[in-house]
Design a protein that fits this description.
Strand content: under 5%
Number of strands: 0
Helix content: 55-70%
Number of helices: 6
Structural class: mainly alpha
Largest sheet: none
Amino acid sequence: MISLVFYHFFCVSPAITQVNEDEIRDLIASSKFKHAYDIILPVIETDPVAMYVMAFFFANGILVSKDRAKERDFLLESANKGYAPAMIGLANFYLLE
């Protein structure tokens, strides 16, 4: 499941974001989860990339307890802000349910 969710980071999205997607992707790829978390936390309420990364953390139990409901909620919020990888992630969430 980690590779399925992580794959979506490579999709291109026109959503407006305050987070540098390349930096977050590199941090996650090198297992620097705490650093990525520290970057997304201040903008988690408004930034679709931050929401998507938080959904990834909840999906995989990284730095937080696994929680499918919170994963879904963050994916939905991110998708509603126009972030294409979150839209794909949300579709996969329901397909795998």
